[in-house]
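testing teh design pipeline on a random one, pls ignore if ur not involved
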């Protein structure tokens, strides 16, 4: 997926609708696991337009926070919001010395990383022995309306092509939906579970707002790139018609989110 092209739509349509509230809770978890009486240093992996950094800074302006992302345009949006200390680089690289960070955070990022073993190794290196890895993943059943969207998409793109898109851009999405998979993976890579819980978030949106969000996510952005303008407009019209038959003019988006806190095994 070309995140550079998607950056402005992502910030406008996706962040507030899907990521702002989970990012606030992720920030609250981070604050809860750090010492408010001293400066804490955090790095946010796959920071995008900086929503997690923004939320942490609101809760504790004294946090020193770095962000990594592979998209120049995403980082440009973050800088336009006054966010500094952000670096353009692709994971699994984390170009910092050992034992640098009190917290490593990641908001819905791990399912996008193909070299997850290398990333976890690098996180262990840069995380202080007493530090915490705090991250979120989508849980199962994140929306009741996926089938409407998928059925419309499949009338324009083949199943094989859609599967290839998902495999290329989100290679481990279903794996990270299952908490048992996550805990086993982390234990195999030298981390110990400190906390896990699931939170369900809901947001009432107009149908137009909801569809603008979906058009700006993975499948929608790729379809806009590969379809002709006429086919793209036809797809949008078909999608609106399919959803409006079921939900009318508004929709309540529901998403289940896994919150995880890990520490390096052996460090008490």
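output:
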């Amino acid at each position: 997926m070309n995140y550079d092209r998607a950056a402005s739509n992502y910030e406008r349509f996706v962040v507030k609708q899907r990521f702002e509230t989970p990012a606030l809770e992720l920030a609250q978890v981070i604050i809860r696991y750090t010492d408010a009486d001293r400066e804490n240093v955090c790095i946010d992996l796959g920071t995008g337009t900086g929503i997690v950094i923004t939320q942490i800074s609101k809760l504790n302006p004294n946090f020193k926070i770095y962000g990594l992302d592979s998209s120049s345009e995403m980082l440009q949006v973050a800088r336009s919001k006054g966010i500094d200390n952000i670096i353009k680089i692709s994971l699994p690289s984390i170009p910092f010395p050992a034992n640098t960070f009190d917290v490593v955070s990641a908001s819905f990022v791990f399912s996008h990383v193909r070299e997850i073993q290398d990333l976890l190794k690098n996180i262990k290196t840069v995380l202080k022995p007493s530090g915490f890895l705090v991250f979120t993943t989508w849980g199962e059943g994140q929306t009741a309306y996926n089938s409407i969207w998928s059925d419309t998409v499949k009338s324009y793109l083949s199943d094989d092509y859609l599967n290839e898109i998902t495999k290329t851009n989100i290679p481990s999405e279903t794996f990270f939906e299952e908490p048992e998979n996550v805990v086993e993976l982390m234990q195999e890579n030298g981390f110990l579970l400190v906390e896990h819980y699931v939170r369900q978030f809901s947001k009432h949106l107009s149908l137009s707002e909801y569809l603008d969000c979906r058009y700006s996510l993975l499948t929608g952005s790729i379809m806009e790139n590969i379809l002709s303008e006429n086919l793209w407009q036809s797809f949008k019209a078909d999608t609106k018609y399919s959803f409006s038959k079921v939900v009318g003019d508004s929709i309540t988006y529901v998403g289940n989110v896994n919150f995880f806190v890990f520490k390096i095994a052996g460090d008490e």
